[in-house]
Amino acid sequence: MITRRAALLGAVGAAAAPILASAAKAESAPDMTAAVASDVAHLPRIKRELVAPPFVHEHEQVAPGGPRVVEFTMDIVEQEMQIADDAWVQAMTFDGSVPGPMMVVHEGDYLELTLRNPPTNMLEHNIDFHAATGALGGGALTKVMPGEQTILRFKATRPGVFVYHCAPGGSMIPWHVVSGMSGAVMILPRDGLKDHDGIPVRYDRLAYIGENDFYVPKDETGAYRRYPDAVSGYADMMDVMNGLIPTHVVFNGAVGSLTGDRALKANVGEKVLIIHAQANRDSRPHLIGGHGDLVWEAGKFNNAPARDFETWFIRGGSAGAALYEFLQPGVYTYVNHNLIEAVNLGATAHFVVEGTWNNDLMEQVQAPTAYGAF
Ligand SMILES: [Cu+2]
To answer: Where in the sequence is the signal peptide annotated (predicted)?
Structure first.
């Protein structure tokens, strides 16, 4: 029996020995004794309430004025989550969702995060922002034990969509990430997005899709194992992880979380900005029956978007963005176009699009009928 306190101290035998080892090896914070001061005291502040994916908190596409300090607060939540009909994980989450909520600021703003690790949790956590500069993306400055909280501020210097994830050191890093602990930040250019010719473009809707690979251990009968807490599943899960073959690849934390009644919605003529984030593993989004009109494949808005993609590539550890104007009504399936991962492992979402069909773009000239009938 592993008590919570023993787990915190890392003194729980073989399974948790790496927890102690990685903590001891963790990189320490940089020397800041001669730091250049930040001059943010005169800047206006705005507080944003985070919302769970696939939705994104209220924000302006074009910055309404000069730089601001944009404040966010997130609780780290360790909780069991069901990821398929027959599979559960002891998830580690930012703010209770997988992926963690998206934070949106503008280039030149300061993102200020209060990160809280409630006393009910078992594990140490932190946050590494790929958008931030220095100190392991903030990871070295945000390590919080259960019962602690911290505040990190960084300047948003590079526009784009970027992954953030927990990275407490050693094998804790992949374990926390594939237990659900990642999310995305979007840093918009102050004057908004531009197309390939530099002409401003706006989106009517955002779809924030986080893809996760899970590695759930099985018992002797082949059934997925369930654990009372994250620490007791650590050793079994590490065995599955080290085989590099996920048991589940899903969008937004579970098989079917964006299909059927939970499908994404749009209307014909609307432009949807699809953000696709994957903190650990490569992916290849594809919208069946649609395209990427403008694709920032690596997700960074200082690069002109590519056009007319059929499938785009998301490097593990990055987020990409694709803008598409829906031209036909119907149900669109959005997949990771490794179709085994899409259909058998779970990486499928739906867009339900309302509007008027355009026979000029596609028409069923003759419904299927007897072979040789015409
Ligand atoms: Cu963590």
So the answer is: 1-23
